[in-house]
Amino acid sequence: MRRILINFILQFLFWILFFAFARVIFLVYHARLLAEEHTGFLHTLASFWYALKLDAATTCYILVFPFLLLVVQSLYSPPWLNVINKIYTAVVLFVYSLITTAELGIYFEWKTKLHYKALMYLMHPKEIYDSAETSTFIILLAILIIQFLGGLLFYLNFFYKPVIHFKRKIGFSVLFFIVTSAVLFVGGRGGLQPIPINQSESYYSRFNILNLASTNSAFNLYISFYENHKYLGKNPFNFYDLNDAKKEVSAIYSVPTDTTIQILKTNRPNIVILILESWAGDLIGTLGGEPGIAPEFHELEKSGLLFTNIYVSGTRSEQGMGCIFSGFPSHPISSIAVQPDKYTKLPSIIPILKNQGYATSFYFGGQLIYGNIKSYIIWNDFDRIKEVYDFDDSLPRGKLGIHDQYTLNEQLNDLMAEKQPFFSALFTVSTHSPFDMPIAEKIDWGYNANINDYLNSAHYTDHCLGDYFRKAAKETWFDNTLFILVADHSHYSQKNWNYYSPQYHKIPLLFYGNVIKDEFKGKTCARIGSQTDIAATLFGQMGLSAAAFHWSKNLLNPYCPQFAYVAFEEGIGWIRPEGSFFFDNRINHYYYDDLPSASKDQIIREGKSFLEVLFQEYLDY
Prior knowledge:
Elements: H1 2-29, H2 31-37, H3 41-62, H4 64-73, H5 79-110, H6 116-122, H7 125-131, H8 134-159, H9 170-188, H10 208-214, H11 217-228, H12 242-252, E1 270-276, H13 295-301, E2 304-311, H14 317-326, H15 340-343, H16 349-355, E3 359-364, H17 373-379, E4 384-386, H18 404-415, E5 422-427, H19 449-472, E6 481-487, E7 506-512, E8 523-525, E9 529-530, H20 534-542, E10 564-568, E11 571-576, E12 579-584, E13 589-593, H21 600-620
Parallel strand pairs: 1-5, 1-6, 2-8, 2-9, 3-4, 3-5
Antiparallel strand pairs: 2-7, 6-7, 10-11, 11-12, 12-13
């Protein structure tokens, strides 16, 4: 029985060490790049520490089959079962060695790890050989052989312990099965926390090469394949000829005059974006909600410009981040923000602002691992990033993290000493289920428990915003700061809108601050748009080019086209001044359609063309 346990533990330890060995090869192979980027020895060495959790999770997946073999061998142990263990280990070793060796070859060109699209290239080894220098090909082939054979010999000589005949104990076999199953399950998901582990767990550096080094290659490839396997290279939204669809989208974005209404007193304000978790438009009285839910927000409207026809592009937080920072619309099926091989192709407002001399920071009271947001945020290259682990342990917190009032205070305290101009983003958490905000007495809003909890959480966050702005107004930098308040996505509300309706997906967007000219304070802008339009609208005020954000439009350009696009599961919502439709491509069904007959066909063609071109661009990244 003892041999069974030792066998399992040694196999686990072997894979952890082998992953580290492959990481050493990656770092040595790219030593020149590391030196050029001045990553530093200790900072580079930290990649092994940050890799441990994902390596351990991957090991748990790999050991499922050997574990089942051991269960059988604890009751019945013929020699051929040991042979199966060796063959399985050799196959996995070879596959992993092939993956990591391929990554050595593609990094110089793609600056990414192996992903699902690259698998299609590996299916044509002759093309790979023809496109690579002979010396490079030979070196990589040698690395593959050394890594595979070295790993296999290391396993067989130091970690492999054959299971031989011994006295059977049914009780041990049952206990081993139950306990080890639980260990593999918990280890595979990275622990007992609500959010299963993902690549974000390994991201720690502003040098992306080190983040890639610390990310387990097999785990990363699995996620990439999982997110894209249904449509490998094939656009499921192929409604029209692609060139015709592109012409349609180009016509949609056509602007006869490139101009903007200048609402700011300066073109280089400090910028603070407050991303409000799950804030539906129905929380805001001006947008049709009940006045008492967010009274502090209503007060802010009096000194700001409220956009009254803004709709979410997607339905998840990681999608909202991609919309806000990269101006890239959400899309059905998956999210680009969870795929490092794709989001690194996107533009970002952060490096552009840093080139303009802005200090940058990002705050979140929860775990950024949620939705793989952490890796995307780190890639955006904020100067300072704070999540739940970076706050004082004494701060009160709920199930999902630090309550909003303390996160807001943390940002405010840091901004008091921040170099100007600065750009700071903060993502709230208290309006996310389970809504465990620290309020003594909840208000009965007259709805069911879920709605009441949601409205109370919004009321709490609104109260926190009021305190935040009263404190901020005392700071010297306040008069030169533009605050942008926007939701990451919408939420069910007291209005009980149908999910497939424009009203469900409406959210608040407010530009606020003394930096706004007096004649625009307390005003509204009714142009239809979404979070993706923040980039072009902001850069229009700053006199910066927004050409890289070709999906974003300037809402303060009077000639700007009016439309909003909403992505859901396998369909699209398309909102125009004339009307809207929500279409599910999977079942070829229109959930919602209030389009006038005269323009119905054309508006449907617009929306479907938009989705087709957008998803094709996503696939091409």
